[in-house]
């Protein structure tokens, strides 16, 4: 127990957090540690240990764990409780198929309403991605890039669904970059998306998005096929 507490303390920190910030702080600490691999798949996450570590009740810890479970970063296992989820699950291909449908619609709604400031913001995220090598940060910037192109979509529930899917993709990006020994991804598709959006070439943008997401689906299928053998 002492060894686990020391490990968690080294990964998450152990400073006391204000009660009104506890849920968000604990969620973000855990989420970051899962995405960058400091908390390995299969590791049990116990409510009481976290409550003791941060000096809070179990209620904000429980809420933080529920949020992470909703993002599929944690799973609940019988007799073990919450554990860190595998980086790639069997439903990963289906998740990308869903993203293709949702994000295509968001692009169609958003592109006609994007202004110069939206295009500039998207290009800014590309520049940051070009220079970033930390896997977790690449995932975050990738999510912000995509959302910057969808921001003007009028269906806000659609945007919430996409944002949730992109949060889950951060885990895949870490796997993808690590497994291929890469420090970053090429930004060719991202640049193409912004160019098409700026030109208001909606169907060109949708075609680039489909190609972009299909590459990820092929990588996942190859990985799952190899692990099944």
From TrEMBL:
SMART domains for this protein: FCD, HTH_GNTR
Domain HTH gntR-type: 20-87
PANTHER family attached to this UniProt entry: TRANSCRIPTIONAL REGULATOR, GNTR FAMILY, TRANSCRIPTIONAL REGULATORY PROTEIN
CDD domains given in the database record: WHTH_GntR (cd07377)
InterPro entries recorded: GntR_C, TF_FadR/GntR_C, Tscrpt_reg_HTH_GntR, WH-like_DNA-bd_sf, WH_DNA-bd_sf
Transferase found in the keyword field: no
Coiled-coil parts of chain: none
MF GO annotations: DNA binding; DNA-binding transcription factor activity
Source domain of life: Bacteria
Signal peptide: none
Keyword terms: DNA-binding, Transcription, Transcription regulation
Protein name: GntR family transcriptional regulator
Pfam families membership: FCD, GntR
Family matches, as Gene3D superfamilies: GntR ligand-binding domain-like, Winged helix-like DNA-binding domain superfamily/Winged helix DNA-binding domain
